[in-house]
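Consider this one:
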Amino acid sequence: MKSITLFVLFTCLAGFAVAQNSYPVSWEFRSEQTAPLTYRIILQATVKAPYHIYPRQASGGMGLPTEITFGENDNVAFVDEIQEKGMEQKDGETLAYYAKGATFTQTITLKSEKPTSVSITIKYMACTKQMCLPPAEKQYTLAINHKGEAGAAEKLP
């Protein structure tokens, strides 16, 4: 009887461990040079059905709005606000949430040509119409103007 109880316990624990690795949102990051010392940072979220994530300025709904923050860097100046667009969004349309995914962009200018990395922290919550998963917080570092790496893409769960 003890061995059956232990078997069931370990099977449940293994199931929880696998479930944690299959979070329904994945992120891809890249930078594009748009002018000398000017770059566009692109953060692309892909969301698996039936989940969705909320816009940065979301109000209402069950989940938390997506929050993107950039670390301090003396060589980086931010131009305007972060822009966002859902994959299913038409021009000018406002969505309550992003069901397929979203693209967030931030334009920056560098104060010098030295190699620079930008740290990015993203907090978000994946929800269905019935429930939400616990909030997730991811931290990434993106190389901006390293020789041979500009525009390099990084894909992380």
User: Anything to note?
Assistant: Residues 16-20, 149-153 have pLDDT under 50 and may be disordered. The longest helix spans residues 2-21. The chain has one domain: 22-149.
